[in-house]
Amino acid sequence: MTVASYKRVLLKLSGDFMSGSTGYGVDPAMIDQVSSQIMRAVECGVELAIVIGAGNIWRGGDALARGMDRATADYMGMVATVINAMALQDSLERMGVITRVQTAIEMRAVAEPYIRRRAIRHLEKGRVVIFGAGTGNPYFTTDTAAALRAMEIEADVLLKATKVDGIYSEDPLKHPDAIRFDRLSYIEALNMGVKVMDSTALSLCMDNGLPLMVFKLDPPDSLVRAITGEPIGTIVSHTPSNA
User: What's the pTM value of the predicted model, to 2 decimals?
Assistant: First the structure.
């Protein structure tokens, strides 16, 4: 049996993983693919928490460009993350994975309010905990929420699942000759202005010594390989790239 290298992990998922070929909305088949990876990771014995975005439903940046108030756009995004959290919970529980959704904005009819000690207790009992509604505050991204929750639950690592296999010197989809990094320091990542994680989240990780792994959620065993310590992505920590 494959054994996890970490005791407790926080997985940051983009809302884009929840949509199908159209790139918009909630696609149950796509969600089941993500859930199957999570199920296999849990079977390795890791305590797993998840923060999920909402780009498949709502993009606040587009609304801002059309003149919407920033706080309103951000709150709408938070609500959209709860939709994704509920969809992921349903998929996981159909696969037999016991799951709890906690939200930073109280919605007691559909989820528990976020309570740190309760979240940790769920994890200790082997339940997957999905954190919805970001931090509960506008002007903060779900990346920042992921870093914050990871530190609050004392996670060993923050895993950022993306559609590229790590951090590159430039966008590899636009620049085929871009250089891929196996390892970066927090300062190097901040100075590069990497797009895969916002600077506030990176700074939180740096200030608290929380390692970050950026990896591609494909092929289907990627999450298991990440939690078992296989170097499948880019590690961001205090260790610089040339060490």
Answer: 0.95
